[in-house]
Amino acid sequence: MSKYHRQDERGISLMEVLVAVGIFVLLVVSVVSLFLYSWKSNRIIWEQLSTQNEGRKIIQDFVNELRSASYSSIGAYPLETVSSTEIIFYSNIDTDTLRERVRYFLVGTTLKKGVIKPSGVPLAYNQASESIVDIVHDLANGTSSLFYYYDENYTGSATNTPMTQPVNISNVRVVGIKLMLEEDPAASPAPFSIESKAVIRNLKTN
Asked: I want to staple 89 with a disulfide (CB 3.0 to 4.6 A). Which of 63, 69, 83, 143 is the partner?
């Protein structure tokens, strides 16, 4: 037996260190990516829910205002304009006795609302005094109608078809509204729609 013996000098090589570090980095990157994806998904879901709730409130306000549409404070017909992207009507939307001129209209992808309160002696609706606010941004209706209209033959059935444009204002009895909402066009899922219909009580004939 040799009086010399080889000492075990095995240790961690540089290659093993690099492999270990690489695996660790991959794990960290995977965990961080999973966290970011989960956070982004949750953010989009909450934003969508918030947008849905806002959309429902806007439509409910629209329906409530339109249901009570009536002749203006100076005798004008309850409906003034009925197009696929704009509707103008008269309704008492506040606590006084006057009827406001209410206008919902689309500009690009933004739904706006304009209100004119009659004033002066004699009373008049001064368009220069119209108060306009944005109520919905990033609408995704595209070529689909925002507003659509039915005559006295509307029964509530899904088979009822809207009147074709140009609509005869005197025949309108029911107005529909459909909003295609999209919180973030670059990241959110496909747009979702919220719609409702309002029967104009003061124009009912049956």
From this structure: 69
- Compute the distance between CA of residue 65 and CA of residue 92 in angstroms, rounded to an integer: 8
Instruction: Give which of 164, 147, 152, 156 is closest to 203, Cα–Cα.
Output: 152
pLDDT 10s digits, 107-162:
998 999 999 999 999 999 999 999 999 998 888 888 889 999 999 999 888 888 99
Spell out where the chain has E strands: 79-82, 86-91, 100-107, 110-116, 131-136, 147-150, 174-181, 192-199
Q: Domain for residue 16, yes or no?
A: no
Task: Using DSSP bridges, classify how beta strands 147-150 and 79-82 pair: parallel, antiparallel or unpaired.
Answer: unpaired
State which residues form the domain around 192.
41-203
Alpha-carbon span 157 to 67, nearest angstrom: 19
The two structure tokens encoding residue 145: 């109608």
Q: How many domains does the chain have?
A: 1
HSE-CB of 7 using CA atoms within 13 angstroms? 2
Give me the residues paired with residue 199 across strands.
174
